[in-house]
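Lab manual, section 2.4: Encoding a predicted structure.

Procedure: take the sequence of the chain (284 residues), apply the prediction step described in section 2.3, and record the output as structure tokens. A sample record is shown.
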Amino acid sequence: MTTPLPIPEDAEARRAVAPVICYPNETLPKPDLGLYQRARAGASKVAEVIVPARDAACFEVAAGQFFRITSIEGPQVGDLNLWNRADITERFFSGKTRALHGTHVTTGERLWSNLPYLRPMATVTEDTLGWYGIDAYGGAVHDVIGTRCDPYTGNLLQGGHYHHCCHSNLTRALADHLDLPLSEAERHVHDVLNVFMCTGFTRDTGQYFMKASPVRPGDYLECFAEIDLLGALSACPGGDCSAEHSSDTAACHPMLVEVFAPAPGALEGWESPPRNGYDRSHGR
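Recorded output:
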């Protein structure tokens, strides 16, 4: 048996060291929310997709358009993947989005793409749950910390083969939309934005937790597409995630995705962001 190491005499002093923000974001390029709001005011709906309960669906959004995700029948959370429509090797990077903006996103914050692209894919322009903030448990809405429910973790923890978790839902949806084999589509499914999901970390053990989402029918999250996007949204089999997130018994509901196109000329002066400017020489 290993003898426990003694607690150092200066333990409290070490714990008391003030934190430093890893990525100060004051120099990030700021979205012109005023321009986006004016463009949105005159926009027309050009497409909509109903995402069935316990399943997923794909949608496409051109750069300069808006997409809105809405709870329509009951409290329901959704797992969102985003890709560059012309090159799906460029995809949403939840980890860097979290590092730049925090564990949860809301109006004015952006969804960033993976390396080596690292540019804004979308900007959150409206969030009807923005009032929620951070609750007494440390919970907040629209997280970029959860990875998505998946059949591999389910098999590891409970055994069995559950096929309607968000990972499998997104895989099927992408495979069908792009006419890919499941094995190829699965390689492009990635960590998600958990739309409407209320989550945080426990203070005692540091474990990821979920609680009943505050979302109600009519609540929505709306984003501006900074580049041409292919999206996939899974209506999570956990419903509002008040008890479990891979379940055939939780109350689940469909979700609505709508796409809106601004009037011609409404985005005058706006340009889609280029790929990251790093020269990729890596010191060689």
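Check your result against the sample. Residues 166-178 form the longest helix (13 residues).
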